[in-house]
Design brief:
Largest sheet: 2 strands, antiparallel
Strand content: under 5%
Distance between the termini: 41 Å
Number of strands: 2
Helix content: over 70%
Structural class: mainly alpha
Order of helices and strands: EEHHHHHHHH
Number of helices: 8
Shape: globular
Amino acid sequence: RHTRLQGDWSSDVCSSDLQALKYLTHSQVLTSKFRNDSWTTSQIETGLNIAYKLKTNCEKNFDSSSTCYTKSKDIYESILQSDPYNWSANYNLGSLLYKRAVFKIKKLDYETDIFEIEKIQDECIRLFFSALPYLKNAYNANPQEELVVKSLSDLYFSLNNETKAVEYELLIKD
């Protein structure tokens, strides 16, 4: 299936992950001019689909220089400039940032140098705090969405805020 993109998105994008990745890697989808333009409803929908595919692909194996992480993040941020209350962009960007931090933590092993651990810990805390406003926006847009409530609970737990983590956890059980 091919989707025709409008505006500065002048090429066809195939729906497979690999083709979407190649398209985004070799194109100028997110030029500074385009980032400042308003997105049409059609562009938002297409952007969300591509960003989600990229997000899903990079969640399999996050890498600090991962193109799919950067492109997915850029697309979500661009969509949110046009539509700050977009539930999907807020939730998925928050989730992407949170999962990147979790991946970095899980990658640590007993041979990791203490100074490297401190550096990674600082980066993860920064990522957790970066994810928070996006997940809160998604929650505010749809407080009944259990996925968002669970994500906020997990995020607050990761930030050592047990009170807030339990508060959201109890919302799931109600």
